[in-house]
Amino acid sequence: MTMLSVGRPTRASEALDSEAPIPAGRGLLQDEPLIFELAGWGQTGVDFEIGADDLDAVDLPGLTRATPPELPGLSEPETMRHYVRLSQKNHAIDLALYPLGSCTMKHNPRLNEKLARLPGFIDIHPLQPQSTVQGALAVMDQLAHWLKTLTGMPAVALSPKAGAQGELCGLLAIRAAHEARAARDGEADARRVVLVPTSAHGTNPATAAQAGYQVREIGQTLDGHVDLADLAAGLGPDVAAVMVTNPNTCGLFERDILEISRLTHAVGAYFYCDGANFNAIVGRVRPADLGVDAMHINLHKTFSTPHGGGGPGAGPVVLSAALAPFAPIPWVVHDGETLRLEEHAQGGPAFGRMCAFHGQMGMYVRALAYMMSHGADGLRQVAEDAVLNANYIKARLSGVMSAAFPDGPCMHEVLFDDSWLDGTGVTTLDFAKAMIDAGFHPMTMYFPLVVHGAMLIEPTETESRRELDRFCDTLLALAAAAKAGEVEMFKGAPFHAPLRRLDETLAARKPRLRWTAPTA
Amino acid sequence: MRYLPLTAADRGEMLAVIGAADIDVLFADVPAAARLPGPVNLPPHASELAVERALGRLAGRNRAAGSGPFFCGAGAYRHHIPASVDHLIQRSEFLTSYTPYQPEIAQGTLQVLFEFQTQVTALTGLPVANASMYDGSTACAEAVLMATRVTRRRKAVLSGGLHPHYGETTHTLAHTAGVDVLRLPAAVDAEAAVVAMIDADTACVVVQTPNVFGVVTDVSAIAEAAHAAGALLIMVTTEAVAFGLLKSPGEMGADIAVAEGQSIGNGLNFGGPYVGLMACSEKLLRHMPGRLCGETVDAAGRRGFVLTLSTREQHIRRDKATSNICTNSGLCALAFSIHMSILGGAGLAKLARINHAWAKRTRDALAAIPGMEILTPRFFNEFAVKLPVPAAPVVEALAARDVLAGVPFSRLAPGVGLDDVLLVCATETTSPDDIDALATALNAEINR
Amino acid sequence: MMRFTKDHEWVDLVGDTATIGITAYAAEQLGDVVFVELPEAGKVIRTGEAMAVVESVKAASDVFAPVSGEVTAANGELGENPQTVNDQPEKSGWFVKIKVADPDEVDGLMDRAAYEIFLAGL
Which residues of C touch A504 (CB under 8 A)? Predict the structure, then answer.
């Protein structure tokens, strides 16, 4: 087989399927090779201001590379074509409802993009004199004010780069608080365990491990909530924190949340809330009123900053009064009329620094623009519409698909299991891939792990009723086909996407992670 | 409200379909004591025009780098970005898509990541690169954690030329995981000092070139010493344009290279979002944190790309994952990759030469000022100067004259005896007039 | 004679050397194996300890030591061809050879008939 020769399209005869009679593409969808297979070797697409004759001699003996990096340089028209063609192979929120549960794929307002690109925001250096960036510090200060007010918490650490780093920031503040208390009492901090529900996202246990804790799992009840008895049994003097996602990954509000925080605090542990699903309750519930000590907020979920194909995110962490002193540098302080950035701990209790500079400023501007646009009233409406939309989908689909927790309302997302597919020969994966053929991105699959064949649907508040109905009608039609025995429609799906199912086993067994020049 | 499509009529009809009397029914699981009766105490919704005015005013209170003489570097660099880059990253299909977990409808993002990884390997001279980290500093911390996993040793030695923020970040993110992070005192030209600190429990040494003082070092001998002791060499670069001129980390024997990729394709953004580059040798592949994109074929035999080797990651390995990282810096990596695709290797080499040329001219202008001492013997596009007075007040005074003269080292590390050191950076965006303005203003301020 | 554990490892003791792998049932359940992480020769492992990791595309599973002893060999073939674990799990897909500390320990494990009854009850 020569199929895997890196850097060249697979054999021409194989690169075509029956629907692509002409090798250049299909309708509007263009085939596009890798940039390394286009022209441009030894070239550049940049016109430089000064020529080679004007360049000073380089006086760095033994320190310079012998030849330029081996990468092609394309002209602007070639560049535009390459990336526009690639873009057309992606699904996007701007194209259709993007129902990934726990990902909050909401509309990304373009005003946010416009404002983040103002020279006064995009073209300022993190270390230029603070007197020259008072407007940027004001953005941080105002964002902090909005986040603190919406959560009811007294402090916020803005700098974490993404949700997972926010989790780590929260746990490091918790660890610092325990260590400080132990030191005050002349003891060593003996708290080594973090309790995490089985339904938690993988970042929770991974973060706890990185913070130096052992993970103890706690179970959940048949109706999708934290098992209080299991929690109580797991709590003890060795527990540093309990990490609970609320609303949880089953799309349910932890109705015993006050008891969870009470039990946690009773053993001297702190309550970390994973705020990934804050969108469901923003403006209607303040985490401070639930006894939360620390919670990260994914600005790219609740506050509409774009996901960008995987990032960047931003994960500010709100902190209770007990944890606030341990927040990492930097933070903004008021010095009379001027704002000042405190960048050094100077022997204080701050536990350290999460990253170089001050966090994701570009995301702060976008999130603040979003908050100001919605206002206090609009943000409350966001939560209500997000929850309404999810329950509407649940109501429309429950007659055919099996909701994992049929009783009572869900929050911003609705969880189905795969029991309704029993006997059809169609799996959750098959069903999801058939959704692609019908024009939708699949829902989150096989997560949370506590439900068999999980399908987690989160529509968000930015979907119109028309789009919700289009989505529900599509899923109902697919479900009817599955139940009618039209298995072939699912097993090989997708048929109409740019590519068919990909061989992930091959990718993992023989990793090819970069292009290399074909050998002659 | 302009981002909420549902009408009051929609809401009523939908509640009827659900069988709920009102919206409050759907929030029934919230304890009564925690239900807010109405909006919190924040301003109400605002028009697009009003928000634009408010944030435009704040933007107007910042002095944009491009509006006058500007010489700040120290981990973030101002470069010219082709207009097509920003246009392309705002394509809906890139901007508003999620992590490519469904490869059949995410080939655009995946192919970009594969191209990005290939570009990073070409720049770093190492065969494996991941699909990006949050930024250079967190990539540095992740590299240290990776080295401790590989070697099963606990100690990391960080050079005195490492950017202080990188050292602080690495300490914060690694020490609770059991890593003993030893940071050597700030030193202008002493990357090799890490060698003397290597012992049997040393997992890695971390060196930076060009370092925070701008000094360029051939780290080959340091790599050899580390390897002889069973430790890994991690090489940090905060200015990715330097890859166009200087020897690559791989060529000098680095096991892991990390870099801040902001310089290519990404604006200053007051410090973020940026894009961390991370590359390593083949044998360290399975210890790599973060997402990896790999080539494969689809059911029809066509080439395609998928996220792969994900058993390293938190969503599968949970508390045994190589890192808790989930989000990467996708859109910034895209901007990097597009800009790099336009530059090409030849363009990057030329750009690097231009940066170096402007930095030398800036150095020459400053060296002519009485009382100034150039500290950096070998540099790429930034260097350190010693002033006869503390640097921070001088920088403030020059800012008042609308000259952003650089970064006082005390801003990064106060009280380490280097308060009189100023870090000065020039790039292709620097003009002869800018250099004159800097030299004139500095001279006037120092030699009043 | 081959012996089996409830965690789906098999042990084949010859003299004081035990060859250890995962059962055909386990290999089937895992799906396509893409990577196997093995301990180095010389490593001393104790019963019940996670001694190896076997990965499919979407799962990573610990393999537990069914007996205590010192690793004398690891199956390097699996590095290049992890699919051997799927193709011949109870033959050339073996993981490690261990010099067992206490051969009697092996006797406490299930024989094939008992393991098959155990599987039938799952």
Answer: 57-58
Alpha-carbon separation of residue A232 from A194, A213, A229, A252, B433 (angstroms): 13, 19, 5, 21, 70
CA atoms within 13 A on the CB side of C51: 30
What are the two backbone dihedrals, phi and then psi, of residue B387, each rounded to the nearest 5 degrees? -95, 160
Q: Give which of A226, A243, A238 is closest to A170, Cα–Cα.
A: A243
Chains touching chain B, criterion 3+ CB pairs below 8 Å = A, C
Residue ranges in A360-437 assigned as alpha helix (H): 361-397, 428-437
C34 at A interface, C-beta within 8 A = yes
pLDDT at site A23:
63
Mean pLDDT, chain A, integer:
93
A192 and B CB contact within 8 Å: no
- Cβ distance A508 to C55 less than 8 Å, yes or no, reads yes
pLDDT tens per residue across span A182-219: 999 999 999 999 999 988 888 999 999 999 999 999 99
Contact yes or no for B27/A387 (Cβ under 8 A): yes
Contacts of C78 in chain B (CB under 8 A): none
| Structure ipTM over 0.85, yes or no | yes
C-alpha dihedral sign at B304, B310, B316, B318: negative
How many residues would you count in chain C? 122
> Which pair of tokens denotes residue A498?
């740019």
Alpha helices per DSSP H over B19-68: 23-26, 48-60
Is residue C90 within 8 A of residue C10, CB to CB? The reply is yes
Reduce the DSSP state of residue B287 to 3 states and report it: helix
- For the stretch A326-373, pLDDT in tens is 999 999 999 999 999 999 988 899 999 999 999 999 999 999 999 999
In the structure, what pLDDT confidence band is assigned to residue C60 with cuts at 50, 70 and 90? confident
Integer Cα distance of C98 and C104 in angstroms: 14
Q: Please say whether the beta carbons of B71 and B430 come within 8 A.
A: yes
Cβ of A508 and C35 within 8 Å? Answer: yes
> B279, A514 in Cβ contact below 8 A?
no
- C-alpha pair distances (Å), C12 with each of A162, B335, C109: 49, 56, 11
Residue with tokens 């019963």: C47
Residue type, B38: G
Strands lying side by side in the sheet with B155-158: B128-129, B276-280, B256-260, B232-237, B202-208, B155-158, B180-183
Q: Is the pLDDT of residue A16 over 50?
A: no
Q: Is A9 exposed, middle or buried (0-12, 13-18, 19+ CB in 10 A)?
A: middle
Candidates A505, A504, A507, A478; CA nearest to A493 is A478
Judge whether B286 is closer than 8 Å to chain C, CB to CB. yes
Structure tokens, B268? 């200053």
Cα distances from B240 to residues A206, A344, A513, B192, in angstroms, run 30, 27, 21, 22
Chain C residues within an 8 Å CB radius of A432? none
Note whether B310 contacts C57, CB cutoff 8 Å.
Answer: yes
- pTM, 2 dp: 0.95
| Omega of the bond leading into A9 within 30 degrees of 0 (cis) | no
Distances (CA, A) of A328 to A168, A319, B172: 11, 11, 9
Is the pLDDT at B288 greater than 80? The verdict is yes
Please give the structure tokens belonging to residue A100.
Answer: 């990934």
Distance from CA of A15 to the nearest CA of B (A): 5
Cα angle value B279/B282/B283 (rounded, 5°) = 115
Q: Which residues from chain B sit within 8 angstroms of residue C54, using beta carbons?
A: none
> What average pLDDT does this structure show over B197-210?
98
Other C-beta atoms lying within 10 Å of the C-beta of residue C79: 12
Tell me what the mean pLDDT of segment C2-23 comes to.
Answer: 94
